[in-house]
Amino acid sequence: GAQASGSPPPLFSPAGGSSTARAPPPAAMSAEQLAALNSALANVPVAPGYDIAVEVAGKGYVCTSEAVGDECARATLRVAEVPVARCGQSRTRLIVDSEQTLAKLAQSGQAAAFRLLAARKLKIEGEMQQLQALKDELAPHQATLESCMAAASPSDAPGRTLTRCHSWVPDEAAPRCMAAGCGRTFAPPFVRRHHCRACGGVFCLRCAPRVNLWAPRDSRFCSGCRASATAPPPPAAPGPTPSLSLIGSTLSAPAAGKDEDDLSKIPGTGDSSEDDTQWLLEYQVEQELQLLYFRSRCVLLLATSLFAALLWRQRHLFVAVSEHFALLPVAGKVSFGLLACILAWVFPLAWRLVRVAWVIGVFTVSNLLAMRRASLSSAKGANAICEMTHRVHARFILNAVTDLSGFYVKLAQMASMQTAFPEAYHRELSKLQDAMPAEPHHLIERTLKEELGPNWRERVRLHPGPPLGSATIAQVHRATLRIVGVDGIAKEVEGVIKVQHRQIKGNLSVDMYSASLFANMMYIFAPGVFEDFGKTCRDIAEMTRSELDFRHEAEHQRTARDAALAHGIDVVIPVVYDQLVTKRLLAMEFIAGERIDTFARAAVRHEKMRLAHNLIDFFAFSFTQAGIFNCDPHPGNLLVTEDAKLCVLDWGQARRLSPAEMEAFSMLFVAASTKDPWLMVELGARIGLKFSIKGATSMVMALRFIMRDSRPVQISKGDMIMLEKMFTRFQKFEELAKVNGDARDMLQGPLLPLGKTADLLHNVSARLDVSMSLLQVFNLRGYALVLKRAAAPGQAPPVVKPASFSYVLGDPVALPPAPVPPPATPAGALDGQLRRMLVGACTNGQALGAQVVVLDAATGATISDFAVGHGSYLRARQLEPDTPFNIAEVSKLHIALGVLRLVELGRLRLNATLGELWPAAKSLHNLTVEQILSHTSGIAEVMLRDVKDVDQITSLPFMLKQLETCGIRPTLPPGYKQSYQHLMYGWLLAGALRGVDQELAATMDVGGRGGVAVNRSSFRGQEVADVAVEMDTPSSEDMATQFGQVFELLDMCERAEMHGATEDDKADAKAFMSLQGLLHLVTPSALRQPVWTQDACVPGAVAYSTARKVAQLLLSVDRGEVLRPETLREALRSRRVAGQRSPMHFTGFARYREAEWGLGLELLPLPGREGVKAWGHTSAGGSFAIAIPGRRPIIAAVLLNRVDGWERGLAQEVLDVVMKFAGGEDA
Known about the structure:
Layout: H1 31-41, E1 45-46, E2 51-56, E3 59-68, E4 71-82, H2 84-87, E5 92-96, H3 99-108, H4 110-118, E6 122-126, H5 129-138, H6 142-151, E7 194-195, E8 202-203, H7 223-227, H8 246-249, H9 274-313, H10 315-326, H11 330-375, H12 379-404, H13 407-416, H14 423-429, H15 441-452, E9 460-462, E10 469-470, E11 474-484, E12 490-500, H16 504-525, H17 533-545, H18 550-566, E13 571-572, E14 585-589, E15 593-595, H19 596-602, H20 605-626, E16 628-630, E17 638-641, E18 646-648, E19 654-656, H21 659-674, H22 677-686, H23 693-706, H24 713-730, H25 734-742, H26 751-767, H27 774-790, E20 800-803, E21 806-809, E22 814-815, H28 826-843, E23 849-856, E24 862-869, E25 885-886, H29 891-904, H30 914-917, H31 929-933, H32 950-953, H33 956-965, H34 984-993, H35 1000-1004, H36 1036-1057, H37 1063-1073, E26 1104-1105, H38 1107-1118, H39 1125-1131, E27 1156-1157, E28 1162-1165, E29 1173-1178, E30 1184-1188, E31 1194-1200, H40 1205-1208, H41 1210-1222
Parallel strand pairs: 2-5, 13-18
Antiparallel strand pairs: 1-4, 2-3, 3-4, 5-6, 7-8, 9-11, 10-11, 11-12, 12-14, 15-17, 16-19, 17-18, 20-21, 22-24, 23-24, 23-31, 25-26, 27-28, 28-29, 29-30, 30-31
Helix pairs in contact: 1-6, 3-4, 4-24, 4-36, 9-12, 11-12, 11-16, 12-14, 13-14, 16-17, 20-27, 21-22, 21-27, 22-23, 23-25, 24-36, 28-41, 36-37
């Protein structure tokens, strides 16, 4: 789709231009190209239902698939140019900032997508899976489509033609480039041979580049043929010259500026056969590996020689010991002999530990040396060094793990699935999943004899040949089993028998101790990601120990099979034959199938999607309903049967869950979806874990990262790279370094198997090259259970439906049907449009619940009054018009109106300073009431760093005392610029009101018209609409956006510490830093804590009311019943400073970056009406209460109980509709 949205550059360069210049970016497609493309696509069968829009450079294109005839399974693609506005109606929409970005996306595909998303040059809306599915379906036809596009491309030199040459110069006849003035020596795979299709000569890439990205492979011409109209005869091959050794030159880094070929492209691309490159790489890897072994053995020999020399110098000690031993009595000699026996028994284990330490030492030192070499090379040379080092080290680790076996095979199996590691490690270590060296046949027979007795052959007949598979703990053999049925009759069945390795138990004991060495080595290379990896390795070793008794595994497998059959889960789990189960033997039925990764290589897109979904859904079922789950779902334990069903094997690492634990895990998935750390603390107590609230905050984000949507491997690698960069930059700031520390040791106890399972599922899906919403699948199972438990007696819980990356509860309707104007009137049309918008938003997952009230400002008549949706994700109750909402920042409107009433009454002056009103706050004595009201106080901090918990932040006396003693002062000069005061607004005005003996609650009552409560104590027993975060899944765009926001904030903090930083930079950084480690205190879930049913108060940030009451308050103000007209006009005079730089606001408050205020009243520009502004206040989450002047003046109060109203665009859409209505436009 990206390639089709631009035309290829011309075949020839303009006159006088360099033939090696980079091709210009693609332009919009011509009508001829569009027709040619659709003609080619007509012959390409695809699945129906595609609807993808691409918007670039003011042009819009839509790609749809239409069914052919009556065949619902076959369709054809069609690309059409459409208006940009039409692009927003497609299921998937790509918005690209420029044609250059589109060219990068076309050239690099998925490898560039993550970087472009993070750089905010690319935006993907809707279903990203469509893009990957279409790419897979078009892949076999790529050459045809490229030829079609190249043929339809205009040329800047019409009439020029090049005749194809059918006689090429042989490779061996051209050791150097034939281009005049070049003469580069060929050294594949870095300086490769390329034949000109016109003259047949051999040239380097620089002298014979391909025409363009879209052109077919046979359109490569040398610079000489490009400059001429006819092809010259093939030039004579130069005489023989001595050639460099290919092997010797493979890893040599080029001199800077001399070699423009990309050394990182291993294996190479172009005209040379990939097989030719592969054998060269394999040979080079083996050579480098042997060199690594040789060097390490030389070091070992040198160390041994030095140790022997040291012992020789102390040989007199051995003589003394031998003489002393000869004089020992018999008892002493016996004791000495016993000690020697113990040492002889311990020696093999100690020797194993020494071998592990040696492997780790060689790997670490070799890596450090390679990093040093890479740092001294050019960028391209460093890429080649790193790539070859990874290949050699992966082979080295494979050989070492194969030799050591035991627990290290488990670690290697896990590492083979990690997308964080280079691809070379996956290729090599994946061989260990079921292809470990098997024990000899006579040892298997010895184990069978020990477990089943001397007559074991009567019960088990092994099939000849190698085992079906060999892994960490055991190996599996095909066998004929003699089973006695319930009727007492013996029968023979075809099955398999799993036999435990004989040395595994002793090796595992040593491996548990040496795992910490491995963890410390990983910490050297990635400290931010592997800081607590040592404890994780030890926990995994303990889990592996539980696999040593196959009787437990048989019980786990039987329980899981029974649960799957009882619930109709479409997954195969083999039958266990209990008569042939012992501590070291396990017999089960034989399931014919192939490994999941083998199946995926030949499967089509929808088959892989179905398989991945079944896999993830089975494990979601295991956590929430089955009561048992498999902790080791790597590809070696997953088969696809002959009828394409998923088969789950190896239930040694399994864990049982009680009903309370299943409910806790269900809530855990909800907590991760809603980013709720307080719920995480509650759940930790249920499963025997104690979390601090800060640790829970970090853990929620960690779980979201582990359970993020699976993506292709390259993008998943990008996630890990970005995570490591983020943690590394965190260490520069003390406040941010603590964030990483809060997350330490969080995946412990019962959560360790969950983290391990989720990580493996994510990596399996990534290796299948499918994109699946891992958390959404888990949450669909768990969330339904949560709602069922929370439903009132006799009330059926709402049905949970997935919606894009969110969820929908039931079928929302606008209730109750309040009296409204007739639909034929403009007012009635507005009401109908608002109802359709809000019901649609709740139906498609864009909103959770809403209250809407629109009043005619001239007459006070009701234009619209309804409620829609649900009040909470956890308690799914239908909203009513009188359900209290947290109006959040809209409550600043009540405070401002109350203060202005005091000014009118003469009890308070706008120019009164805090030094007069609040003498105890000495550091704030110069601030005036007007500056606080107009958000020009200059205070940058959002939160006070000394606040520890939610009890303190909700105690108004405590917070005012902290402001008196903490010494906080304005960062910017008061009046310098408007910058939204988040929490400080209410606290500062509450302190100022002390000077006139006025309580904050009484002030917010606005003379009995406020209708607002500062906490939930007055609503006990009444349902209150919770402020909620969208219950979503971490999508690709979500991850890229989050990383982009974090890096933007880190850049801001670094700028603030640079020499010459401006006061604006320092203020922005101070605002961000003031919240670090305290975000849990201002999350929506904190409002569910018990303190809010008592005397809690966070002025200007939390207050409870309804849309009806807020609208009535604004109507009273607009009519002059609260403030005199002159006071209101003064309050509506903008205090925004001309030319001020917009302040940087952290995520969630970006709404206020360009906001404008008078005296506590927010001023909103009206489209197309210069100089006229609406007034009122908005919230950061999407609620607003505003008075809009115009031909049809109105009062609008819209309350949303989800905090992403502005981010999703819903709040802005509703605001635009009511503003247009007030301006005279009909709905």
